[in-house]
Amino acid sequence: MNGTTNEKKKQIGIVWANPYNKNLGVAALAYSALSILHDVLTTHNINGEITFFGSDKSTKDQIKIGNKVITFKNIKGLDFYDLKWILKLLVDPEKHQLKAIQSLEYIFDIAEGDSFTDIYGNVRFEKIRNSKKYFAKRVKKQVLLPQTIGPFKHVRNEKSAFKAMQATDLIISRDKQSFQYTKGKLSKDKIRENIDVAFYLPYEKQSFSNQKVNVGVNISGLLWNGGYTKNNQFGMQAVYQDLIREILTFFVEKAGVQVHLVPHVVPEHQPVEDDYIVSEQLQREFSGVLVAPRFETPIAAKNYISGLDFFTGARMHACIAAFSSGVPVYPLAYSRKFNGLFVDTLNYHWLGDCVNTKNDEILAGLKNAFETKEELKKQIQLSIKTIVEPRLLELKELLKQALDS
């Protein structure tokens, strides 16, 4: 990073982001947070060193994002108030990089985008919450990067979450619903509404030279399997497996359409989450459909999605990849994080609400969106120009202000 050679480097931690995650939405957040912080440091000649906390690795590394190669360090994630982890730190502090953790001065916590909630279970929630408590006592600044706040099923979790947020310096919501939620419980000088950092992820526009209308369908392995609990964990009125088959039937039977199944979460040893396994299964059921590769990076996935003519899916960052590359998209929402971002923040009303709506209504909305996809494209272009771009500029300014302290 830039800065005078004698100036001490600011030690910057991006917390709960993992650039190696095979959930490419989480990786997209890591790449984008790294990229935007790097650009703030470079633009303002700030001497800083970036470390991912919550990474899969514990070594120094670099990745190419657009036309720049960015170097960073890694620390594996841990739960600071879990007895098992406390013992590990005491027994072998060097292995678990305690000195590196303690050196961090500026914390930018993104909580994997949507994990500051208990809808994925208490273990994940408590780990995400506990780092905030730990760093609040030790760092110069702790900022929650744009993310979904909540929802919380249990009152005790909600109370402890807001207690942790009270100890941070700034909470940035990525959607209007999260902002309104925090607005009722936190002082106004501590909260901001902005946009998902994945809108900052670069891509190279692709095209498919097959003279067809190329339609991408992302199938969530997690929803297909009923969530981690395997019993409709997210309380959806839509019957997801039936809905996917109805969507594929509609597009496969439509003349001139080429269907691409586009996995966006591709862990090879976590079948309950793996979009690729389900995509391969459905390729055997529906002749002629293509399955996109197991992408190695979120940029590779976004490049592919950018070449499509229409997209639908239940992985939010696959939908963001479509939207931010100008592709008409019909998200299939299983959480208010979709509604808050697309409908309320982006003023984009083409969305299927799988929690509150049944299959027939969702499918009808999808068909209408597909038939009017040029209208969707115009709205996307307008939203990017009037909402996304100004908010990303504002986010850079907020990050600069945090690093100036």
Which term fits the overall shape? globular
Number of helices: 14
Low-confidence stretches: none
Class computed from helices, strands and strand pairing:
alpha/beta
**Main sheet record:** 8 strands, mixed
Radius of gyration: 21 Å
Q: How many strand segments?
A: 14
Strand percentage, roughly? Answer: 15-25%
How is the largest sheet built, in terms of strand order? Answer: 3-4-2-1-5-6-7-8
- Cα separation of the termini: 18 Å
Share of helix among residues? 40-55%
Residue-averaged pLDDT? 95
In N-to-C order, the SSE pattern is EHEEEHHEHEHEHEEHHEHEHEHEHEHH
In short:
By secondary structure, this protein is α/β, with parallel strands linked by helices. The chain has helices spanning 24-43, 83-91, 98-103, 122-136, 155-166, 176-183, 221-224, 240-252, 275-285, 298-306, 316-324, 336-345, 359-371, 373-404; strands at 10-15, 48-55, 61-65, 68-76, 106-109, 141-147, 170-173, 191-193, 213-218, 257-261, 290-291, 310-313, 329-333, 352-353.
Keywords:
8-stranded mixed beta sheet, 14 strands, 17% strand
